[in-house]
Specification:
alpha+beta, six-stranded antiparallel β-sheet, 4 helices, 14 strands, 24% helix, elongated, signal, Secreted protein
Length: 240
């Protein structure tokens, strides 16, 4: 009986296609893994983190794209990054990254623990601690010779290079008063002067990086940034 070869060429072609697909996928994953390792190494040098650094290439076939000089979209996160005089948890998301270090721009977030915020604001000098509630900053503690318990709620606003903290209400002995209303209380003039808005400048942000938002989260002060298209900002130059 003559063997039946009908259908076998199709099976052979299908097997070859499947093999090539597996090889392509394996090569892509290998190149992608090596690219992620290089990104992590660069982030570790620039950020000097206390915790782990993670890099994710989120564009399909990102590994093979690197062979043509394109990496695609990249997300890098680092815990306990040392930036200037602060220790922050940082996440950076960049679009259309190239192998020569340029991108189409992106965004970044950085979160600072309230212990650092308290020290930066000098709140410890007045016996106050800093926390967050519903997006606003809360300063609380005991002040004055009588050690009266005081809670101050402040709103946050930003420009490209500044963060402004504006006290809105003050609560003393369970009674809340709008800071603006303190102007009508002569005895509260000293407290009113201490509750003036305070602006913190972020003067050493890398070129192309701008502050866009500030939110007092439960676990720390969350800052948002925009990153302009062009060379990837050098993380070591960022201020906090």
């Amino acid at each position: 009986m003559r063997p039946n070869f009908r259908g076998k060429p199709r099976l052979v072609l299908a097997a070859i296609a499947a093999t090539l697909t597996l090889l392509t996928s394996a090569a892509d994953l290998l190149v992608e893994h090596r690219t992620e390792e290089r990104v992590v190494a660069q982030a570790e040098r620039g950020l000097r983190p206390d915790g782990p650094v993670r890099a994710d290439l989120t564009t399909p076939l990102a590994g093979l794209r690197t062979l043509g000089g394109q990496v695609g979209d990249v997300t890098v996160s680092a815990e306990g990054a040392h930036i200037r005089h602060a220790v922050l948890d940082v996440t950076v998301r960049l679009k259309d990254v190239t192998t020569n270090g340029a991108s189409a721009g992106g965004t970044a977030t950085a979160i600072a623990g309230y212990d650092q915020v308290t020290r930066r604001l000098g709140a410890t000098d007045g016996g106050l601690t800093v926390a967050g509630r519903d997006g606003d900053m809360i300063l609380s503690g005991s002040v004055g010779r009588l050690g009266l318990p005081v809670t101050v709620r402040a709103t946050l606003s930003t420009t490209a290079q500044t963060l402004t903290i504006t006290p809105s209400t003050v609560t003393v002995l369970g009674r809340s008063t709008a800071v603006d209303d303190l102007a009508g209380l002569p005895a509260a003039s000293g407290l009113r002067d201490e509750l003036k808005p305070r602006t913190v400048a972020l003067t050493a942000l890398p070129h192309g990086v701008a502050l866009t938002s500030a939110h007092a989260a439960d676990d720390g002060l969350l800052l948002g940034f925009s990153i302009a298209a062009g060379p990837t900002p050098r993380a070591g130059r960022k201020a906090a």
